[in-house]
């Protein structure tokens, strides 16, 4: 690091300190920065006691490691007379247990081949995928002048369209697929399945580009079924995400005996695309809330929210019977259809008290009768819920906005690199110079996610001094998140104006962005750890 | 409704021109995928002498998926439940597009001749069948007379 750089850095720190009121955080940040400058900002924030370890998977990677690794080993061991297609079928049939294949092969190869649907040696597989003339397919009963047909060594021949449709249906089972003929047990090799699909779906017989084996349709279908059936695997719940995660430390994760009231055992995991989610309830990372609170909240929101929001925005309750009334026209002299109570729409006071002095709704010193108390109480409960719910949804929708920014920021990053390259004073340039931008967005998004769930947390929390501490932590996090969000807002709105402006803006704010995203991660951790600690010690309790 | 696949037309033609002995299948005029079916009880079974009515429907995906078949006549059989639904492998997992309406109906006829109480659909019937087969067969005969013959005489 050169002297001038150092100076720059100092200057930025000062401006940062000056512009925002994070004095208390400033020193923390410095020490934190020195140790974590290389650490990514989107590091998993979770209670320190959680001991879940997990593997991130994608289907091709999974097929390669779990299925095809055995295939490779078996290929090396050279089982007498087996082709590669045969091996794959044998392994698939034995559920990828290579040992069983080897044992059975040396025990009774004839039986093994028969069971797996392979022609018994010394007979070789003779599968044909070819074009033929004047063919009557016995499944679709069409008579073709020229058509592609497929047959296994049994010579049961059907047109490719029927085979395609048949295989398409059978794929859902993830099991080996046999000849169409009902009493014929011969198995269609994995490679042929892809070939048939390529030809039929691309409407051409000269497709040469075949998928790699770890994207084979049958293997993919089989892997999906496998993942579905194992309780130690779960799909990432993020929209359009194809990743899934395996929980490894199953000793600490026993579904049956778990008490999800303890926040310390919430198994927050990450998928291959860096989405965090809860392995137990298959929802996004909902820390600091325990799963059971999340479940309750979601149910409540589904039951009430939309309707209540609408009712709240568009109706008033009859002051007498509390029926919801939508005013769709007419004057302010209302008569409730249900209880025939007459009242003023503006002040909701008794109409009779208006004494014909229409719309002068300045009467406010009504005595609080018992009914009034009850009414205001129920209104208060509703308002309390809406208060939390509104903030919960605001952060949810902001998170979606962040995702959009993340997409835009890649263009911005390229722009930034371009302009730095042109600048002759900059000698070395790497992608990592700009990495802080997507990292910061992720930190922002994660911070928001935690913030979102704090409102669910707070809704169910019982009043106590510790609740106030929680709320101030929440407030701190909120402010940092908003500050960073504002910077990005500026960057993305400037990005339409021109390259030089935006690069200047990023340069000016670089240190600020890094510091803010560090602060977010730090405050997020403080909040979650604090919540964990206080819940565990019984200092905070939920009002269930 | 989409045009009827050639396969269904051919099968229907053959069912009419070359009927299976003891089995009739007639498509409805207004829905050619819906068949009214009758199956004669196999002579060596407790269902002998009865004529059982069934309905058969060919789903959109036929012949890639199995036809839907159901008994309309009440029958006392361990693999056929109160609603007439049938537990038969070729109607489910073992369906193959190379099978046909006629082969399916033959399989059902065979099922009448060989009840399988070890893979039951109607649990109560299967239990009776296993406990006292003789008595169960008597009941099956009685039901055949009551439901599958009475209709015939009407």
Report a brief summary of the structure.
The complex is a heterodimer of chains A (544) and B (154). Chain A is mostly helical and 544 residues long.
Largest sheet of chain B: 4 strands, antiparallel
Average residue pLDDT of chain A: 77
Largest interface: A-B, 14 and 16 residues
Order of helices and strands of chain A: HHEHHHHEEEHHHEEEEHEEEEHHHH
Report the biggest beta sheet of chain A as strand number plus sense, adding barrel if it closes.
3 strands, antiparallel
What is the chain-wise order of helices and strands of chain B? HEEEEHHH
**What form of chain A results from the Cα inertia axes?**
extended
- Helix/strand structural class of chain A: mainly alpha
- So how many helices of chain B? 4
**Which consecutive residue ranges of chain A, at least 5 long each, have pLDDT under 50?**
1-50
What is the CATH class of chain B? Answer: Alpha Beta
Extended strand count of chain A: 12
User: Globular, elongated, flat, extended or rod-shaped: what is the shape of chain B?
Assistant: globular
Question: Mean pLDDT of chain B, nearest integer?
Answer: 89
Strand content of chain B: 5-15%
Radius of gyration of chain B: 16 Å
In total, the number of strands of chain B is 4
Known CATH architecture of chain B: Roll
In what range is the share of β-strand residues of chain A?
A: 5-15%
Q: How are strands sequenced across the largest beta sheet of chain B?
A: 1-2-3-4
């Amino acid at each position: 690091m050169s002297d001038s750089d150092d100076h720059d850095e100092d200057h930025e720190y000062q401006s940062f300190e000056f512009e925002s009121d994070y004095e208390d955080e400033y020193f923390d940040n410095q020490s934190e920065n020195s140790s974590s400058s290389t650490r990514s900002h989107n590091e998993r924030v979770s209670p320190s006691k959680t001991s879940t370890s997990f593997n991130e998977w994608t289907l091709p990677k999974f097929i390669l490691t779990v299925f095809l690794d055995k295939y490779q080993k078996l290929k090396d061991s050279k089982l007498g007379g087996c082709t590669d297609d045969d091996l794959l079928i044998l392994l698939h049939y034995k559920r990828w247990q290579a040992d069983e294949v080897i044992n059975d092969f040396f025990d009774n190869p004839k039986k093994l081949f028969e069971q797996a649907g392979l022609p018994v040696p010394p007979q070789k597989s003779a599968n044909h995928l070819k074009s033929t003339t004047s063919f009557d397919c016995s499944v679709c009963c069409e008579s073709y002048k020229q058509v592609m047909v497929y047959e296994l060594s049994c010579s049961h021949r059907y047109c490719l369209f029927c085979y395609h449709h048949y295989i398409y249906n059978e794929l859902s089972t993830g099991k080996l697929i046999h000849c169409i003929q009902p009493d014929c047990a011969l198995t269609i090799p994995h490679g042929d399945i892809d070939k048939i699909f390529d030809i039929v779906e691309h409407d051409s017989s000269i497709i040469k580009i075949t998928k790699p084996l770890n994207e084979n349709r049958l293997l993919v279908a089989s892997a999906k079924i496998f993942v579905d059936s194992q309780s130690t695997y779960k799909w990432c719940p993020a929209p359009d995400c194809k990743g899934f995660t395996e929980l490894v430390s199953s000793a600490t994760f026993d579904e049956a005996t778990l008490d999800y009231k303890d926040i310390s055992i919430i198994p927050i995991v990450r998928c291959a695309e860096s989405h965090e989610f809860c392995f137990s309830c298959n929802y996004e990372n909902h820390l600091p809330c325990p799963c059971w609170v999340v479940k309750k909240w979601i149910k409540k929101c589904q039951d009430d929210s939309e309707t209540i929001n609408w009712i709240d925005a568009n109706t008033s309750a009859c002051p007498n019977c509390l029926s919801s009334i939508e005013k769709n026209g007419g004057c302010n002299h209302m008569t409730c259809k249900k209880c025939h109570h007459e009242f003023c729409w503006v002040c909701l006071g008794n109409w009779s008290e208006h004494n014909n002095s229409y719309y002068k709704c300045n009467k406010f010193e009504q005595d609080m009768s018992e009914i009034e108390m009850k009414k205001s109480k129920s209104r208060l409960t509703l308002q309390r819920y809406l208060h939390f719910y509104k903030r919960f949804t605001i952060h949810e929708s902001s998170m979606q906005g962040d995702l959009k920014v993340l997409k835009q920021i890649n263009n911005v990053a390229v722009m930034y690199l371009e302009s730095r390259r042109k600048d002759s004073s900059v000698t070395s340039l790497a992608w990592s110079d700009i990495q802080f931008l997507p990292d910061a967005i992720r930190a922002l998004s994660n911070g928001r996610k935690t913030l979102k769930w704090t409102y669910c947390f707070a809704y169910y929390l019982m009043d106590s001094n510790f609740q106030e501490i929680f709320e101030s932590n929440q407030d701190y996090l909120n402010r940092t998140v908003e500050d960073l969000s504002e910077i990005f807002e500026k960057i993305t709105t400037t990005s339409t104006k021109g390259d030089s402006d935006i690069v200047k803006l990023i340069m000016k704010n670089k240190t600020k962005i890094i510091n803010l995203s560090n602060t977010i991660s730090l405050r997020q951790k403080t909040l979650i750890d604090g919540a964990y600690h206080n819940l565990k010690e019984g200092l905070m309790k939920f009002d269930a | 409704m989409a045009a009827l696949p050639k396969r269904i037309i051919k099968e229907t033609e053959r069912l009419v021109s070359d009927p299976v002995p003891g089995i009739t299948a007639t498509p409805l005029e207004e829905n050619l995928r819906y068949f009214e079916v009758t199956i004669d009880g196999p002579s060596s079974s407790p269902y002998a002498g009865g004529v059982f009515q069934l309905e058969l429907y060919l789903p959109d995906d036929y012949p890639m998926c199995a036809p839907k078949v159901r008994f309309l006549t009440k029958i006392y059989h361990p693999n056929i439940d109160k609603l007439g639904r049938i537990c038969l492998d070729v109607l489910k997992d073992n369906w193959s597009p190379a099978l046909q309406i006629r082969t399916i109906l033959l399989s059902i006829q065979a099922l009448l001749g060989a009840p399988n109480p070890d893979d039951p659909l109607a649990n109560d019937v299967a239990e009776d069948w296993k406990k006292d087969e003789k008595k169960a067969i008597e009941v099956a005969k009685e039901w055949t007379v009551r439901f599958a013959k009475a209709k015939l005489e009407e």
